[in-house]
Amino acid sequence: MQRSRSPFPPRPRSAAFAAALSLVTLSFAISTLAAAAPASTPGQSKFAFAPDTAPAGFTAVAPATLYSDARGYGFEPGAAPGGPAYFSVDLAEGNYDVTVTLGDDKAAASTTVKAELRRLMLENVQTAPGQTVTRRFTVNVRTPRIAAANGIEAGEVRLKAPRETVQEAWAWDRRLTLEFNGSHPAVRNIEIAPAAVPTLFLLGDSTVCDQPGEPYASWGQMLPRFFKPGVAVANHGESGETYRDALARRRTDKILSSLRPGDTVVMQFGHNDQKQIKDGKGGPFTTYKAEIKAHVAAVRARGGVPVIVSPMERRGFDAQGKVLPSLADYAEAARQSARELDVAFIDLNAMSRTLYEALGPEGSKRAFAEPAPGKLDNTHHNAYGSYELAKAIVTGLQAARLPVAAFVVDGFRFDPSRPDPVAAFSVPPSPQVTHERPLGDEANK
């Protein structure tokens, strides 16, 4: 698909920015099928960030090299001097292992890597002057195309324009885009190779999907950070949607066409389903449960592992500091469905209430998006809130003893009654900023 080349307004890359990239060793070398480099596995690419010391088989790329279709790789335009840098490379749809070598010969460095649309992969990797470290993560690249497979007809996901075709286009194009962020990002080498690994599919609403700009974020964007290489997180959620919308827009078909036996499908809806009651088109214990049942049956028929997640609560407190329930019926319907269908269940509704109450009426404000001063969004989260909810999801996967939990990072621990201190949270924000509220749930601002 064609996309706007950047989700934030493009600006010419300045000489000062090119110099800054060299200073932090962000000069790339890439081997692609179109580049003059030794033959390699199809889909494999190699990147070296210090042109003078590029290893054999790596193709040096100057810091000022912008992406072009003919070249098939390059920096995305629009980054401010000294700010985060974005690099894209053409890749076919699929899962890939990405290996990065980090470090600066002359200075201490701190590097955070995000993929595609702000999916957190590596968080604040620290290196001393002269030190190098190697890290690997697994990432999913996808397009709207639906191939005929697993009994699914060919076609395309019905993307929302302009939200998905412009602001969220990086999540759908035939490219891998990497964001290098941090106080002093230092990336020396990158290698990309196809990965025949399990996929953890996500299906949900605005609290799950890849949000395009700060201050909004979702637990789905934070989830990859808590998994080791060897499993890819493929986020098919979208703002404003329900189980019914996922079927109508063929997001469910897209997942089912790509699903391999043993893959996991985590599903969380509820916030927007409440509008169906208002419109007289269903309710939690009727249509909502029926749509859950249909999804579970479809996933199981193709050898997948379905997981039902109850929707997290909105922020609202009574006089005693207890969270006011706004989604209790949908949480109960999800719980009943999981029990009746014998499906793994993550009670994010309960864990979110525990989390918010632990933070308190005032402290919990720092877990939610504030798109304008004094204007708090009590439904949608910021990076910190999403990070904590992602930990709750991981905790639920472990408690359910699902096979995918074997890939959780070593030493993982989380107790929603004892959340991470807000002051200690330091994931650097991406430069994309939006004042547009995510779609749906308009009655609950």
UniProtKB/TrEMBL annotation:
Which SUPFAM superfamilies has this protein been placed in? Galactose-binding domain-like, SGNH hydrolase
Please give the Pfam families that the UniProt record associates with this protein.
Lipase_GDSL_2 (PF13472)
Q: Which CDD domains match?
A: Rhamnogalacturan_acetylesterase_like
Organism expressing this protein natively: Massilia forsythiae
Where does the UniProt annotation place the signal sequence? 1-36
**Ranges of biased composition (kind: Basic and acidic residues):** 434-445
Q: What is this protein called?
A: Rhamnogalacturonan acetylesterase
Q: Which domain of life is it from?
A: Bacteria
User: Residue ranges of the SGNH hydrolase-type esterase domain?
Assistant: 202-361
| Recorded GO MF terms | hydrolase activity, acting on ester bonds
Q: Which UniProt keywords apply?
A: Hydrolase, Signal
Nuclease in keyword set: no
Sequence similarity? Belongs to the 'GDSL' lipolytic enzyme family.
Note down the stretches annotated as region Disordered: 420-445
